[in-house]
């Protein structure tokens, strides 16, 4: 029996990451209680190995792998993975108006965990630095020898389910109750996960009583969270709640910094081009810069206008009508629905203003747009199929380069 899991694991690594395979050749690998223990004495390497296994292998087996330092392996004791990536630090975070408060609170938290702001709840739109700040807090605390666990809410949930299935939930609890800093990302994903919420609530209380630091990030304010128990939400709100945004000045600074990091020339026209081709998300900036690096300036297209057109086009194709019909005045059910969806999606994915959208749909004023968007929001909440269609279209639009 022994060794079969190790072989499966090594084959998995072989197919996914050759560098890791080369590293593994020099490491002690053991199998105990159905788990694979990798001994990595060097802490830097340990982190690297752990990250690759967690992020890149994408196989349930990867979760059975425990990376330990020498001593711990002797005891065959489970060491909670930190979930941290060294890539995110305070030093490489560009600070500006929209994220200054979030940055300062994060820094204070990392210097005085468990005392100043507990819990710290950070919220804001996607791709603007929430994960980066959580990770930066974690890295700073880990450097000082504190025990850190960073998890997205869904990772935390999956991990819990696994322990429950194996009848080892008390082990799970014991481990998490040991941490000094608990960082839970994307807490909106706890929505509807009742058991996870109960577990997190208890863990929260336990850590809080012991003055351990808790940091949470979400795409919305705690009050806007859906299907999360009131008592948990009230815990989330019990410390400091900070919104993070991205203003244009900071965005320019980030563009410049990212160009420098990639050793690309920082020219005004290039910065402008990137500004025009991206919305309010740092992730988009990074994508644009990569596109630019690969394909030159011609590869980037100015955004808003073409984007609205793309949305109209995509929705029209989905409904089997023409873009002209969407822009026209027909009140037929299908056309009106497509038009509504298109307006809603424009607002969601292009970052265009209501007035711009109204104009792009040849409407006189933007109240029609507001009305239509509200209607779709309601439909989406109430009707699964609508939600499904919109999710599909959103994905299609986002995947477009
Ligand atoms: P979120 O969690 O809010 O969706 P992330 O933290 O994952 O966003 O940020 C997306 C990308 O943008 C990451 O690569 C992150 O390092 C980078 N980023 C975000 N904000 C900044 C910033 N202020 N300075 C430098 N890089 C940033
Ligand atoms: Mg994130």
How would you describe this structure to a colleague?
- This protein is α/β, with parallel strands linked by helices.
- The protein has four domains: 4-76, no CATH class; 100-243, P-loop containing nucleotide triphosphate hydrolases (Rossmann fold, 3-Layer(aba) Sandwich), CATH 3.40.50; 248-299, Helicase, Ruva Protein, domain 3 (Orthogonal Bundle); 307-398, Orthogonal Bundle (Chromosomal Replication Initiator Protein Dnaa, Chain: A), CATH 1.10.1750.10.
- It has 19 helices and eight strands.
- The strands form two sheets. It has a five-stranded parallel β-sheet with strand order 5-6-7-4-8, with helices on both faces. A three-stranded mixed β-sheet has the order 1-2-3.
- α9 (194-209) links the parallel β6 (181-185) and β7.
- α17 crosses α18.
- The protein is globular, with a radius of gyration of 24 Å.
- The mean pLDDT is 89.
- Magnesium ion (MG) binds next to α6.
């Amino acid at each position: 029996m022994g060794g079969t899991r190790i072989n499966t694991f090594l084959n998995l690594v072989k197919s996914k990451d050759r560098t890791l395979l080369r590293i593994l050749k020099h490491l002690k690998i053991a199998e105990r209680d159905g788990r694979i223990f990798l001994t990595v004495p060097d802490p830097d390497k340990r982190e690297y190995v752990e990250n690759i296994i967690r992020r890149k292998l994408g196989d349930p087996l990867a979760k059975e792998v425990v990376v330990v330092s020498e001593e711990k392996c002797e005891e065959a004791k489970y060491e909670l993975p930190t979930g941290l990536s060294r890539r995110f630090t305070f030093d490489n975070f560009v600070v500006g108006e929209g994220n200054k408060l979030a940055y300062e609170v994060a820094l204070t938290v990392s210097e005085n965990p468990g005392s100043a702001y507990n819990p710290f709840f950070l919220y804001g739109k996607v791709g603007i630095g929430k994960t980066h700040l959580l990770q930066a807090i974690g890295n700073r605390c880990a450097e000082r020898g504190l025990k850190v666990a960073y998890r997205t809410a869904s990772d935390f949930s999956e991990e819990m389910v696994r322990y429950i299935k194996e009848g080892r939930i008390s082990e799970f609890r014991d481990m998490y109750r040991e941490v000094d800093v608990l960082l839970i990302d994307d807490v909106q994903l706890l929505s509807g996960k009742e058991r996870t919420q109960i577990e997190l609530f208890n863990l929260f209380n336990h850590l809080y009583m012991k003055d351990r630091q808790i940091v949470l990030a979400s795409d919305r304010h705690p009050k806007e969270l859906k299907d999360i128990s009131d008592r948990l939400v009230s815990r989330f709100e019990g410390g400091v709640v900070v919104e993070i945004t991205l203003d244009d000045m900071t965005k320019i600074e980030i563009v410049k910094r990212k160009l420098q990091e990639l050793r690309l020339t920082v020219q005004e026209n290039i910065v402008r081009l990137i500004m025009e081709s991206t919305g309010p998300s740092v992730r988009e900036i990074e994508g644009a810069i990569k596109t630019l690096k690969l394909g030159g300036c011609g590869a980037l297209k100015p955004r808003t206008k073409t984007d609205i057109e793309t949305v109209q086009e995509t929705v029209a194709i989905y409904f089997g009508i023409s873009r002209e019909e969407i822009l026209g005045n027909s009140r037929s059910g299908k056309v009106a629905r497509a038009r509504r969806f298109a307006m809603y999606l424009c607002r969601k994915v292009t970052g265009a203003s209501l007035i711009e959208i109204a104009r792009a749909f040849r409407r006189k004023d933007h109240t029609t747009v507001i009305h239509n968007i509200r209607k779709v929001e309601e439909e989406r909440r109430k009707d699964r199929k609508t939600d499904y269609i919109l999710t599909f279209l959103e994905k299609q639009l986002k995947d477009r380069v």
